[in-house]
Amino acid sequence: MKATDLLPLTLRGAQRSVAMLRAWLWACVSIIVLTLALAPTARAQGDALQATIEEFVRQRSGPPNDGAPRAVEAAPRRVVVELGQLDPRLNLAPCEKVHAYMPAGVPLWGRSRVGLRCEQGAKHWNVFWPVTVKVYGMALVAVVPLRPGALVNAADLRLAEVDLAANQSPAVVNLTDIVGRAVARDIEPGQSIRQSDVKLRRWFAAGDPVRVLVKGDGFQVTSEGTALTPGDEGRCARIRTDNGRVLCGQPVGDREVELVL
């Protein structure tokens, strides 16, 4: 075959390449135009989802219910919600009705996440949006450095606005709950005092005589007993009453136990 015979084949190949290039360029332009057209809709949906989360968090935010005594008093609190970022690879279909909920076992306190479920739309979806819930309120902070083993004095503390949700351990708000107790770890000036920062108060030792206050619906009875275990604050103490019965009560004061029926 002569070189002149190859010329038409070469031209046809070049023409096919140009045609393919044009098709690819048109496809790219179409995608860009479609993306620009849908961008306002996507942004509007994103804004609506964020508004749904913020309203849900403000209504539900509260300290974790872990069974520990709540040290945060019922007082006005300032809630700040910081939204994280969803996986940018997610492409959520438009939804007419979005339901916000909390996953089981996840407290809406500090770093958390909120579930979003599309209940009415062309395509149902379910995602988890990371959030940081900051709850500001008045609590005690250290004025001076406090070191492990040191006993806390009233002059060592002051009230200040702190992020109550910055730690899973409840913030201490009352001086009577901490003055005279020993510090369990280093606390720097300006740092919020948490229940876990101080050692448990021991109201009595095993073998001590104790006063037992039994409370019920519309009545209360006082009796005497002997402690079988130490009376540490927040922990059940086993007490043998004068009639030989063994019960579990909460230490509430110097050689005092309370049992609520």
Number of distinct helices: 1
Radius of gyration: 33 Å
Overall, the morphology is elongated
CATH topology of the domain at 136-197: Type Iii Antifreeze Protein Isoform Hplc 12
Strand-pairing-aware structural class: alpha+beta
Order of helices and strands: HEEEEEEEEEEEE
Number of strands: 12
Helix content: 10-25%
| CATH C-level name of the domain at 136-197 | Alpha Beta
Look at the structure and give the mean pLDDT.
Answer: 78
- List segments where confidence is low: pLDDT < 50 over at least 5 consecutive residues: 23-42, 66-74
* Span between termini: 107 Å
Account of the 3D structure:
The protein has one helix spanning 3-60; strands spanning 78-83, 95-101, 110-121, 126-142, 157-163, 202-204, 209-216, 219-227, 231-232, 237-241, 246-253, 256-260. The protein is of the alpha+beta class. Strands 1, 2, 3, 4 and 5 form a five-stranded antiparallel β-sheet that branches. A five-stranded mixed beta barrel has the order 7-8-10-11-12. Mean pLDDT is 78; it is low at 23-42 and 66-74.
